[in-house]
Model the fold of this input.
Amino acid sequence: MPSNRQVNINTESVDNYLKAILALGGPEEQSVSSTALAQRLGVAPASVTNMLQKLASARSPFVEYEKHRGVRLSPEGKRRALEVLRHHRLIETFLYEILDFPIEEVHDEAERLEHFILERFEERIAAKLGHPKIDPHGHCIPALDGRMSKQDSAPLIDVEKDGEFVVDSISDRDAKLLKTLKAHSITPGAHLRVTKSPHELVLRAGKGSKPLHLALSAAGAVRIRSTN
Amino acid sequence: MPSNRQVNINTESVDNYLKAILALGGPEEQSVSSTALAQRLGVAPASVTNMLQKLASARSPFVEYEKHRGVRLSPEGKRRALEVLRHHRLIETFLYEILDFPIEEVHDEAERLEHFILERFEERIAAKLGHPKIDPHGHCIPALDGRMSKQDSAPLIDVEKDGEFVVDSISDRDAKLLKTLKAHSITPGAHLRVTKSPHELVLRAGKGSKPLHLALSAAGAVRIRSTN
DNA sequence: CTAATCATTTAGGCTAGCCTAAAATAGTGA
DNA sequence: TCACTATTTTAGGCTAGCCTAAATGATTAG
Done:
């Protein structure tokens, strides 16, 4: 009696694992460690191992996983991860544009809703919004087929010398930071003058807005591109 | 060591039980049997008993439950049930009005979403919709404080003699029926001529629409009021 | 090249919510 | 009233997803 029993996998939990692997793997889709996943998802490393084993041994596996060597998305896993990301960003856009949510609140609400909507819902809000390509944080929204244009931007933390840039995007995971940045008019598309000092960056957007002193630790959340 | 351990209750499941008790108890809030609940929720009677015991022994109980005598909502349970009902009906209205969903699809989608939205979301869509009092099926939407105006209508199945009526509301639980009714212009507010025969009702709405032969078994889904 | 450290996996447990089968209770007709 | 039937509850099991503690594997400093 071989142990090919069917294992049921809770979609919500799986989605969260896949999204985390997508995000942590970065654009080069590097393999991701259990610990990194555990930290991001707020669960114990042992729980991650457990789930990865399930994901890898499903009928059509969502991940490629070798013991002790981290995990990568399979093509199927990547497809699903991008689908969830598309849901997430469309919902964020929708909450912001149609329901007038403040920018710093859309992430948490979208996080909750993204698992429970069907294609039809997605289709309708995409249509209602005119099939947007960018969400209110400046992030690309994957197309229906999973294609997503490459980001032509760099994290603010990599800035070498003082200068002027355009804000490309801002991570949605830290609501407080998002609110602070908004209060200083630092939003996607804004022009930004950056002055570097040992422990912080000083940011100035537009003219009327006060300069913002940003700890280097927070500067990874903002991506910029050159003004031209 | 007393057994006063804290029991965690999954909100989604609880919500479904509370909604079912509210619906089956009717406007007089009669006590509801395990079997009726089991049937409506699609679970085994034993599962219902189990859950009712949990609901009744929670810190602030959602139901009043006596073995073998059915179950009623506690004030707290009623409050929550009406809150979920409000969510459900607001979401339905929203899907129909803003996202242009076909009427027969809004129920299932709302069913999925209603558990996962926060007050803030509810608030926004209520505002966006102009604080509607009636959903697209003709059902009252409970107010924020749980108050809901009494239905001044009767089930179509109670019609004694032929006559003309106004469609008050239509149950959203049978998508197929909803679609059929729509095709015959039988929607909330429509004028309806009803002809009774032993096994069916014949319904005619407006002038251009064909008469609909409706089995008595389906006639509980439609509520009517008198034309005046 | 070995020992210490760090990362990861295994083993064993827990809870929620469902199930089935068996036991108990309530209701009813003779 | 008593037995029969239908309803409801109890008892015992299962799975998913989490946990902790212990064991194992990988890596790195001396």
